[in-house]
Amino acid sequence: QGQLVESGGGLVQAGGSLRLSCAASGIIFRGTVMGWHRQAPGKQRELVAGITSGGSTNYADSVKGRFTISRDFAKNMVYLQMDSLKPEDTAVYYCAVRGVRASDYNYWGQGTQVTVSS
Fold it and tell me: Which of 55, 56, 57, 35 is closest to 46 using CA atoms?
């Protein structure tokens, strides 16, 4: 059974940076897409960034140029480097995984809180 555990969230000032980490276990990276999502209270969860096992990436328009998603196969880790943070980035961030041809992400981490102060 796959398991994802996020870490690295915290409180930062606007313009600052954070790096989120996602430790994966029981998941084979080949043929998978790893994604970072976020959800603020009262708002819908949104996909922030995704990365395939081949290294292809995609980003929400709101974070392009500021966030970078990456994978480390040797360590079974997925990262989200967040730079130039804005107050509107405040949310709980979740790591998730799906098959490359699946329509939905089927494994989720517990989430890590990111708060950006102004």
Answer: 35
Q: Are 14 and 32 in contact (CB under 8 A)?
A: no
**Mean pLDDT computed over 81-106:** 95
Total Cβ atoms within 10 A of residue 112:
22
- Our CA angle for 80, 81, 87, nearest 5°, is 100
Residue 84 per-residue DSSP state: S
Report pLDDT digits (tens) over 40-62.
Answer: 999 999 999 999 988 999 999 99
**CA triplet 79, 5, 89: central angle to 5 degrees?**
55
Average pLDDT, the chain: 94
CA 97 – CA 104 distance, rounded (Å): 9
